[in-house]
Design brief:
The protein is α+β, with helices and mostly antiparallel strands and 238 residues long. It is built from nine helices and six strands, in the order E-H-E-H-E-E-E-E-H-H-H-H-H-H-H. It folds into two domains: 91 residues, Glutaredoxin; 133 residues, Up-down Bundle (Glutathione S-transferase Yfyf (Class Pi), Chain A, domain 2), CATH 1.20.1050.10. The strands form two sheets. The protein has a four-stranded mixed sheet with strand order 2-1-5-6. The structure holds glutathione.
Length: 238
């Protein structure tokens, strides 16, 4: 089997990893024991790199084309896929061993993603502000320009109120986990829902200041540091 190729985004952090969307296929590839290599792209060069490999553009809210990371190339099938959920869905169909959508749960986990993202939304201003700090200057400038189309500047407004909303969101997520009779969202059955949560937690851990991550990961009795550690272990990334 030839190695799959994952396009991820560079940062100035040791080991690079920070972006939640490329992290999702990375965790899945690793969980499924699939061989892969990573190509690291500057945030400001994503469109150039993705156009060059023939990836399809998506649309920004203003209707303009946007090329995004992650993209996966599978040389075994010739597939070139963008969008993290479409990539993991492809991986599940093409490499069904060690399922991430057990018991036909893909539709429900797609719905879970929307509900979960709504809990995180209030934190995007400070997540974006911190992410801009760990990118190289040209990428930070580009990142600030394009992400401010989603969350208008200034990102340091309502900081404390948004932290409170993020904590409230995690209380809701905690209630969801409490309804499960195992350590995963689907009881004792591991799934992409847990990977998704871990990838966002990883982004917070990598991008936020140390004391900010300590604050977040201590909520709900330390649940969030634990979920991240458990998922990393399950995906052979610990
Ligand atoms: N929903 C998409 C989002 C992908 C996405 O927006 N990626 C960002 C980086 S995390 C990107 O490449 N942005 C480029 C731009 O906005 O110009 C996914 O899950 O893959």
């Amino acid at each position: 089997m030839q190695s799959l190729v994952l396009y991820d985004i560079l940062s100035e952090l040791p080991g690079n990893n920070w972006s939640p969307n490329p992290a999702k296929p990375r965790f899945v590839l690793s969980y499924k024991d699939l061989p892969f290599v990573t190509i690291w792209v500057e945030y400001s060069d994503i469109s150039i790199a993705m156009k060059a490999i023939g990836s399809k553009p998506h649309k920004r809210p203003d209707g303009s084309d946007v090329y995004t990371s992650p993209v996966l190339i599978d040389p075994n099938t010739g597939a070139i896929i963008s969008n993290s959920f479409e990539i993991v869905s492809y991986l599940e169909k093409t490499y069904p061993e060690k399922p991430i959508f057990p018991h036909n749960s893909e539709p429900l986990i797609r719905a879970f993603e929307s509900a979960y993202l709504r809990l995180l939304q209030p934190s995007f201003n400070f997540l974006f502000a911190r992410a801009a700090e760990i990118l190289r200057p040209a990428s930070a400038k580009f990142f600030t320009k394009v992400r401010s189309m989603d969350v208008p500047l200034p990102w340091d407004e309502n900081w404390d109120a948004n932290w409170a909303l993020l904590e409230k969101g995690h209380n809701t997520l905690y209630e969801w986990y409490q309804k499960s009779d195992g350590k995963w969202i689907m009881g004792d059955t591991f799934s992409f829902a847990d990977i998704m949560v871990a990838c966002w937690l990883l982004a917070y851990k990598r991008v936020l200041k140390e004391d900010e991550w300590v604050r977040l990961s201590s909520w709900n009795g330390g649940k969030w540091a634990q979920v991240l550690a458990d998922v990393e272990k399950e995906c052979n990334l610990a």
